[in-house]
Write a structure and sequence with these properties.
Helices cover 44% and strands 10% of the residues. The chain is of the alpha/beta class and 831 residues long. GO terms for molecular function: 4 iron, 4 sulfur cluster binding; metal ion binding. Pfam families: 2Fe-2S_thioredx, Complex1_51K, NADH_4Fe-4S. InterPro entries: 4Fe4S_Fe-S-bd (IPR017896), 4Fe4S_Fe_S_CS (IPR017900), Nuo51_FMN-bd (IPR011538), Nuo51_FMN-bd_sf (IPR037225), NuoE_dom (IPR042128), NuoE_N (IPR041921), Nuop51_4Fe4S-bd (IPR019575), Nuop51_4Fe4S-bd_sf (IPR037207).
Length: 831
């Protein structure tokens, strides 16, 4: 069928044709002129060369040479002028042609302003309305934001640029988000520029620029919660509240649903925080009660209790209390030894347990070099993940001159880890005492404790303990009558995993975007405000008082040759007894999982353990006898990290686990270097392709090659270790990748590759139909049920609620439509 300009473009067709003719004409002239110039240019250059050679031999030929030069210059200028004019004509014609081809934007129907506008005109009663009439029409602009609290906030927090993050926290606490008029007023009353403010507010995930609902619901996306089904809970929560795709608040403004990297209560997975309360072990069938609460329906929910952190590192029950208590007291405990008998909100009990004796000993009996030597002899290594010898870092900072800083890194961002949270909440004074000893050893006079925004109780207890220490003379000028002075501030983070890296953390403390920088220079040489800065993890600092009180030799008796002392591990995931475990370095993975954690639940099989968070790796159960120390794990392709262990069973898909960690690191990447910013995105796309059953063998090779490139080319530790979960799963679980290439998910985890089916064991109790959020199961009492695969969202609510275990998953690339049983099939009607 011929293309009809006039039919498609109406009156603009002649303009389009004319501009097209001009365009082709100018291009034709350009081509002809260019060919003519090529024919002329060769002979003229040859004649000019001959004339130049003759002019050098004969003076009379010089005039001929000058004449030829003038002629060729004139022709060149004319040619360039013609090309320029024809080129401009061609560009204008092309632009006009494009404009004529564009479809005119459809006119937007005017909204009715009055009720009379909605009524049909006389004679048009039969006509249908061309556009729906909105239910409500805004008649006025939103009410203005009250700017009076801004001055009080600035007066309380300070107006310097490095106070930007505390200022934004205060603004968000007042307004529940960051209104633009308030931000403009903040720039007027402080030294902060709009560019600085916009850059910081957009970098940290905890800052909101859109209004928040009446209730704030935060779903944990940590590793333990992920393997426990947090994704299904999130999907059904959004569906139940009616939150549209791309939004985070329901249409009525009642609830805002957010995801957080980790709430730090991994033994309660899946965990959901509603306002200030944390709900444990939330399942899809629990969501109706939570949704009713968020919508302020007058229905009292059962089981809604505020989260209360246990004070011991093990939970005791009536069936195995003696055995757990015996194991709890038999092993060495440097960090958690007196948590059961010590309250965290007072200093008196800590003093009765020997608190601040190590600090007093250092100030009265030891020199800074002797303190560093004692830490060196203990073999203490950094507990934050790197494993760098603590004494070497201290000595390097101590050799520097001028003012110095000490920073306690409490930005525990690894999903599945909650050791630092428990330490700061249960023993804040021990962390601060170790920090004071470190400051004395390196000659620092200022200290900063950097704590995650997701740990409000830890922030509050650290600040309260700092204030009590000032009142009792453990902080301030001339501590305990010595010449040593130190003051400590507590800085609250704003939701950036990258700020766990020490150079990014320092940038955040200075009120900037948390972007790492190249090293050297190291923070020990040039850190906070370009001054020497000692950065240690809070667990590392908490070990120091014990070493100074009991001696380095006693500490060195624990652990292995290369990894001395004890380590606090968080045990979560598919394990019977999750929680904190402090054990000597060198304890095997199997001992942690099967002895302290009591193994996986009945009927399940221990499959793997994920250790080290996003920077770590996945090790199979066959390697469970591996000792947990820095060198042994590094040989297997993993790292200890901060000490988080997530146990996986046979229902966990290792490809999905690798995809989950890539999704986390890609989201948390600061975007500074190309390998991390683009490489992790490409890796995630390939893994999502595999989980959807659309991968190829070429994709597997590309995943492995790209993972090595990202590891070698990234700037900071986040990018260098981001491919570890992918590489370890490829190494130890290659068969699962092969199965996904065939369109199968052996664990039945990937939604695109599974379907749910009711077996003949169904007794017709209708529980599955009652808990199905999308009505994909028709209740048929005392008969075998059937799942409509067209409606099923694979939320897993039916399988988890079935008391007869009569619902199973079928793994297939293209889930077939499962036929209904005979009792549910439509019978033909007789006419």
């Amino acid at each position: 069928m011929a293309f009809d300009f006039k039919q498609r473009f109406g009156k603009k067709s002649w303009g389009a044709i004319a501009s097209m003719v001009v365009l082709f004409g100018s291009l034709t002239f350009l081509l002809v002129d260019h060919l003519h110039w090529q024919r002329y240019y060769g002979p003229s250059q040859e004649a000019l060369s001959q004339a130049e050679a003759a002019a050098q031999l004969d003076q009379d030929a010089n005039d001929r040479y000058e004449q030829l030069v003038e002629q060729q210059t004139t022709k060149s200028l004319r040619f360039e002028r013609r090309e320029r004019v024809l080129g401009i004509i061609a560009l204008v014609a092309a632009g006009a042609f494009v404009l004529f081809l564009r479809h005119p934007a459809p006119a937007k129907p005017a909204l009715p302003h009055t009720l009379a506008d909605c009524m049909p005109k006389r004679g048009d009663e039969e006509a249908l309305p061309t556009a729906p009439v909105p239910e409500t029409v805004p008649t006025s602009s939103p009410p203005p934001v009250d700017l009076e609290p801004v001055a009080e906030i600035v007066q309380q927090e300070g107006g310097e640029a490095h106070r930007l993050i505390p200022l934004l926290h205060a603004v968000q606490a007042e307004y529940r988000y960051l209104p633009q008029p308030v931000l403009d007023e903040l720039c007027k009353q402080t030294d902060i520029t709009p560019a600085q403010l916009a850059g910081v507010a957009s970098f940290y995930t905890k800052f909101r620029t859109k209004p928040c609902g009446k209730h704030l619901v935060q779903l944990c996306r940590g590793t333990a919660c992920h393997v426990a089904g947090a994704d299904r809970v999130l999907e059904e929560m959004r569906r139940g509240l009616g939150i549209a795709p791309g939004q985070d608040t329901d249409p009525n403004g009642q609830a805002t649903v957010e995801t957080v990297g980790c709430l730090g209560c991994c033994s309660l997975a899946p965990a959901v925080q509603v306002d200030e309360n944390i709900l444990a072990n939330v399942k899809v069938e629990d969501l109706p009660e939570i949704i009713d609460h968020c919508q302020d329906k007058p229905k009292k929910r059962s089981g809604y209790l505020p989260f209360r952190k246990p004070t011991a590192s093990h939970s005791l029950d009536a069936t195995s209390g003696e055995l757990l208590l015996e194991s709890d007291t038999a092993r060495p405990r440097v960090i958690t030894g007196d948590w059961e008998v010590m309250a965290a909100d007072t200093l008196e009990e800590y003093e009765r347990q020997g608190g601040f004796a190590a600090l007093a000993k250092c100030l009265s009996q030891l020199t800074p070099d002797e303190v560093i030597d004692e830490v060196d002899h203990s073999g203490l290594r950094g507990r934050g993940g790197g494993g760098f010898p603590a004494a070497q870092k201290w000595r390097l900072v101590g050799l520097q001159s001028g003012s110095k800083y000490v920073i306690a890194n409490g930005d525990e961002g690894d999903p599945g880890a909650f050791m630092d949270r428990s330490i700061m909440e249960s023993a804040p004074a021990r962390v601060l005492e170790g920090m004071s000893i470190a400051a004395f050893a390196v000659g620092a006079t200022r200290g900063i404790v950097y704590v995650r925004n997701e740990y409000p109780l830890a922030v509050r207890r650290m600040r309260e303990t700092v204030q009590r220490m000032r009142e009792k003379g453990y902080l301030g000028d001339s501590i305990l009558g010595s010449r040593f002075s130190l003051d400590i501030d507590v800085v609250e983070g704003a939701g950036a995993f990258i700020c766990g890296e020490e150079t990014a953390l320092i940038q955040s403390v200075m009120g900037r975007r948390g972007i790492p920088h190249r090293r050297p220079p190291f923070p020990a040489e040039s850190g906070l405000w370009a001054r020497p800065t000692l950065v240690n993890n809070v667990e590392t600092l908490a070990c120091v008082p014990w070493i100074l009180r009991h001696g380095s030799a006693q500490f060195a008796t624990f652990g292995t040759e290369g990894s001395k002392g004890t380590k606090v591990f968080s045990l979560a995931g598919k394990v019977r007894h999750g929680g904190l475990v402090e054990a000597p370095m060198g304890t095997t993975i199997r001992e942690l999982v099967e002895y302290y954690g009591r193994g996986v639940p009945a009927g399940r099989q221990f499959k793997a353990v994920q250790i080290g968070g996003p920077s770590g790796g996945c090790l199979p159960a066959a390697l469970a006898d591996t000792p947990i120390d820095y060198e042994a794990l590094r040989e297997l392709g993993a790292i200890m990290g901060s000490g988080g262990l997530v146990v996986l069973d046979d229902t966990d898909c290792m490809v999905d686990v690798a995809r989950y960690f890539l999704e986390f690191t890609q989201h948390e990447s600061c975007g500074h270097c190309t390998f991390c910013r683009i490489g992790t995105r490409k890796l995630l796309d390939l893994l999502e392709k595999l989980c959807a059953g659309k991968g190829s063998r070429r994709d597997l090779k590309e995943i492995e090659s790209l993972a090595h490139s990202v590891s070698q080319g990234s700037l900071c530790g986040l990018g260098k270790t981001a491919p570890n979960p992918v590489l370890t799963t490829l190494k130890y679980f290659k068969d699962e990748y092969e199965a996904h290439l065939e369109g199968r998910c052996p664990a039945g985890r990937c939604k695109a590759l599974i379907a749910y089916r009711v077996t003949q064991d169904c007794v017709g109790c209708t529980l599955c139909a009652q808990h199905c959020p999308v009505a994909a199961i028709e209740p048929t009492p005392y008969r075998q049920h059937w799942i409509d695969t067209d409606l099923c969202t694979c939320c897993d609510a039916c399988r988890t609620t079935c008391p007869e275990k009569a619902i199973e998953t079928v793994s297939t690339a293209k889930p077939p439509r499962i036929a209904a049983p005979p009792n549910l099939r439509k019978q033909p009607q007789l006419v």
